[in-house]
Design brief:
It is a single chain. The protein is mainly alpha-helical and 76 residues long. It is 53% helix and 12% strand. It contains three helices and three strands, in the order E-H-H-E-E-H. A three-stranded antiparallel beta sheet has the order 1-3-2. Helix 1 packs across helix 2. It is elongated and about 70 Å long.
Length: 76
Amino acid sequence: MYLTIKETADYLSLPEDLVKGLVLQKKIRSLYDGEQYLIYKDQFQSHLEQVEKYKMLYDEYLKEPIPEDIDVKDED
């Protein structure tokens, strides 16, 4: 299923101008059918899922405590 720029902006809760700018900068892949740009929803959805997955992994990494090393020596 393909979405127009307006539908994509509504889906992401972003301004339409921002989405159009990202499409024109080729940061969002799209097709141009001669009248409008179309964005493939499933591909876009999988990208969002991957971003969320990496955010969760990064948060888990930041929450991991730094282990104390008994053999650390102060070298002044």
